[in-house]
Known about the structure:
The structure holds two protein chains of two kinds.
Chain A: H1 5-16, H2 23-27, H3 31-42, H4 45-61, H5 72-90, H6 94-104, E1 118-119, H7 124-127, H8 130-142, H9 145-156, H10 161-168, H11 172-190, E2 213-214
Antiparallel strand pairs in A: 1-2
Chain B: H1 5-10, H2 12-16, H3 22-34, H4 36-53, H5 64-76
Helix pairs in contact in B: 3-4
Amino acid sequence: MKATATNEAELIRRILAGETNLFHELIRPYERLVYVTIFAILKNETEAEDGAQETMINAFRYLKNFRGDAKFSTWLVTIAMNEARKRLRKGKTAAEDSLDTTLEDNEGGDYTPAVPTDWREIPLEALEKKELREKLREAVTMLPEKYREVFVLRDIEELNQEETAAALGINVTLVKVRLHRARMMLQKTLVPYLQSGARLEAEGKPTRGGFFRRWFA
Amino acid sequence: MKLDCKHVWEHISGYLDRQLDPQLLAAVEKHLESCEVCSAVLDSTRNVLVLTADDRTYELPVGYSERLHARLTAVIAGGETA
C-alpha cells in the first residue's frame, strides 16, 4: 500500500529533523519500483539489486535536496534511472553505443508493425507461459535506450505521462511518441510468440478450430 | 474521416491509452470493425501490455527487501561511508 502524500511529507520532515530510522518506512512502498526500473533497463539481477541499494542510499543522503513540489516517487525514479544509466555505460562497449544511436535516428518516422500471419484470439494459457515472459524481458532490454526508458516507466511502473516526462526530463509529447515506438517494436519482436501456431503454445495445435484463421497463408 | 491501415497503426497506443479524441476514436473503431489485420495488430500489442503488467514478468529476488534494509540500517547508523 502506498503512503499518502501527507504521510510522506510528514515522514520526510521527521527524518530530516533527526528521526532517521523512519527512512525505512518512507521507502518501503517503493522497493519494487526501484528494483524493477533498474532491472528492466539492465536485465541483470545482481546489478539491479546493487543499483537499487545505491538508489535508496543516495535518496537518504540527499533527502534534504528533495523539493516538495515533485512527488517523492518521481524523485526516487529519477535517481534509479540515473543509477541504471551509469551502470549501463560501465558495462557497455563503444560498438553497442553507436548501434543505439543508429537505431534511435528513426524517431518520428513511420513504423510498420508485424502482422500475425496465423492469428486468432490468444488463449490465456499462452500468456501464462514462463518462456513468453522471458522473451518479453529480453525484448525490452533490446529496445534502444530512450524508448526503453519510457516503456519501463509508463508500462512497467505505470507512471503517468507527466510523471514519466518529469523523471526523464523530456516533454509529454516525446513520452507519447517514444512509448508508441517502443510498443510497436515489442509487438514486432514478440508476434512470433504471440500467435496461435507459436512454439510456446501448449500442444502446438489449436483447440478451438473455429477460431483458427490464416491471413496470408 | 476514413483511415487506412497505416494511420490506424499510428494511433494504436493512443487507442489503448484511451487518449484519442472522439472523432478519431470513432474512425479507428470503424476501421477495426472491418479490418482483421489491424485488429490482429491491436490484439497482439494489447497482449504485450497485459504480459508487461503481469507481476510475474518482473519479480523481486528472494531476500531483496531484507538485504536492502540491512544495508540502510548500516548507512543510517553511519557504519558505512561514501
